[in-house]
Amino acid sequence: MNIKKTMTLLFMAIGIVAISCKEEKKTEATPVDNMQMKEVMAIHDEVMPKMGKVGKLVGQLKPMVDTTAQGRQYATAMKDLQAANESMMKWMQDFGDQFDSDEIMNGKELTEQKKLLLNVEEENIKAVKKQIETSIANAEELLRKN
Q1: Residue of 113, 40, 127 whose CA lies nearest to 83
Q2: Are 38 and 118 in contact (CB under 8 A)?
Q3: Confidence of residue 67 (pLDDT cuts 50, 70, 90)
Q4: CA-to-CA distance for 137 and 37, rounded, in angstroms?
Q5: CA–CA dist 103, 88 (Å, integer)
Q6: Between residues 114 and 20, which one has the greater pLDDT?
Q7: Distances (CA, A) of 14 to 8, 56, 73
Q8: What pTM was computed for the model?
Q9: Region 82-100: what's the mean pLDDT?
Q10: Distance (Å, whole) CA 11 – CA 37
Q11: What is the pLDDT of residues 35-45, one digit of tens each?
Q12: pLDDT score for 26
């Protein structure tokens, strides 16, 4: 065997060893990342069905709004519900702009920056949930008094 063939085989062998020893890049999120994404989506999924109730309550309050003190209370409750609805729509838009479907649904690994964004979005959806639940409770209480 000549030197050229020997060197070629040696480099090929080194290449094969290098490729086989190369660490495989992870494509899935770590369990902690995946768990946090699932928790954020669980909060969203818990709150989303309440959006129908928000719309229904707005519809009930709207005809009761007038210039009287009671009418202004109805107007305030209606505006709170509408603001809660707007907050949910904005959160969903922002969340969808920051994370792709593979990150949300399939556990795709998040970059460090996206991990930080997920922390912020978790706090944001918790605030939206509270806003929605509070506005619903206040509107229902006001309507019960009617």
Answers
A1: 127
A2: no
A3: very high
A4: 28
A5: 20
A6: 114
A7: 10, 70, 78
A8: 0.76
A9: 97
A10: 45
A11: 999 999 999 99
A12: 45
